[in-house]
Design goal:
Layout: H1 9-19, H2 45-51, H3 59-72
Helix pairs in contact: 1-3
Amino acid sequence: LGTGKSTSLLQLVDSLKTCFPQWKSETKFAPPRPGDIKHSQADISIASSCLDFTAQWSVESGLQRLIESLKLSPVNH
């Protein structure tokens, strides 16, 4: 689903850098391309009203939980 809150691409990159401190990539900025989406936000209103859904984790904490679960996965051993 989503959190119902917008996350910019730069915020996502910062979260990834926090989760992967060994990642030493440099952020490069370029003009927008045709078709680029300027703003996007998940509409969780139906999930909220029908399923009583509320996001339990932020994007960053969700990424951290995903990484930890992947580390524990038998597929990775």
